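Most newcomers find our protein records easier to grasp once they have seen one. A learned vocabulary of local backbone shapes supplies the integers on the structure line. Here is such a record, shown just as it appears in the course material:
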Amino acid sequence: MTLSDLLGCLTVAELKDLVGYLPSGAASPRKDDLIERIVVAMCGPELKAVWTLLDEMQQTAVAEAAHHPLGEYSDRRFRARYQRAPAFHIAPARSYSHSAGKRTALCLFILYSPTEGCYVVPTDLRPRLQAFVPPPAPPGIATLAELAADPLQVVRLTEREALQEVLVMLRTVEQERVQVSDKTALPGAASQRLLSDRLAGGDHYPHAVQQHRWSQEIGPIKAFAWPLLLQAGGLASVVSGRLQLSPGGVRALTTPPAQVLRGLWQKWLKSTLCDEFSRVEAIKGQNAKGRVMTAVAPRRAAIEATLQACPVGQWIAVDDFSRFMRATDRVFAVTHDAWKLYLGDRQYGSLGHAGWGGWNILQDRYILAFLFEYAATLGVVDVAYVHPAQARSDFRDLWGTDDLSFLSRYDGLRAFRLTLLGAYILGRESAYQPPAIASSVALSFSPGLQIEVVRGALAGEEALLLDTWAVPSQPGSWLLDRERSLSAIEKGHAISELKAFLESAGGQPLPAPFASFIALCEHNGQALKMLGNAVLIECRDPETAAQIAGRPETSTLCLRAGPRTLVVRSNQLARFRERLRSLGFGMAS
């Protein structure tokens, strides 16, 4: 719409306010004459004189809108980028007045278009402004090379963890030990505890016993995400309440872990298995009748597109990431109807009330959940976080939050850093090579498999590596432990990584006892392989056991485990029963 079209939507009183900003005012009070006077001034030599009446923030707003492809001014986008808003009105003299106040000169440049439903720079004004108003710099995102020290903050380096954990999770599923719901495909509490024990470094928050029934529980994060990621990625499926590896999951066991993680990320972006926002349990009504929640794929796509614009290896505050999304128009909706979502009470706590279901409550919580539970689990981002209790206070003014110490279990996430693995998973790099641990620390090796730091300080990854294979005996000293080392190998860790680090930090080949210990653990660490679960079956006498084990119909399905005992794999039990009946035998449960 042209300037004349948009001015025609204003009242005579509003037009008179605007004419007052022109150098020579107006001669006629008629609406058409007022409009013509403004158009002549703004499309003529008086334009630059009116431009000088704007303050810096107003001029920035005009520059943003004039150089926008559609000439649109977005208050959401502007506030996200500049943390302020330009003045469209002069505050009324009386504080109790409900009037918005007199319009400023900014309203001569940016007007509301009823046909487009937004504020725009008129089409005939844009080229004139673009001729002398420089375009704004592209929006940027604040980054930090290093985070400030904070004793309450945990920094989790996820890259190596994810490469190890994906194999551990696949092996655990192969053993048919992960129970999930047939209806929701969500892992049960026992399975989550099992997976938490197998994670490198454990879950983000340690398991804590709930003190009171009304107390909020953080619960597992990574242990909850892994079963869903494996299912969404087509590597596991639910069979009788347990996860079993699919043919793709079997192939993944011999595929480079980085490729597996990349595939899981791509499949998760399109999966409908779980809405991450459903884990914000304090917000009720998500499963109400009708279309309440939006599709998850567009939400994930908006976050992924913003991650694509983030630099690798730089820390980014989550709040800055959120503002950058809005400043670059990478926005999304969480719900179709905020009135159906509520806190505490459906009527009083509805998020449809003005200012209640804003971006910080809905979109920010979704961003936190997506980054913390899925991006970090797959090694796309390192994370820095604190305990969620009292970490964010932006929900305190909402009705029904008096008893909440946090709105979501992800509230403690403060910052993240895109990893080299994340750049590969996002498709920004065509290949991935796990980074070697570069160390400035010096180690010495004592009899009895003792390792001591003699110079420098261990980095976080180095300390985690030693803790994986050795037992801390005192500050700066570790003792190689056979049980711990074998446990690490069972979880999928490579002891060759420990050997390379020790040789590098020691500055010489390993002493014979250390080299022998590592070689023996590497040789015996996978001496046995768990093929699956089995059932022990007791026969009535040795003759029956020998007969069943010797018949061609059943000999391939069972093994002798004693004079009267047979062993049958769990997944072959149904076939074994059928063959028994064909031989004239029955088996009681």
User: Anything to note?
Assistant: The longest strand covers residues 413-418. The chain has four domains: 3-130, 154-208+217-425, 442-524, 534-583.
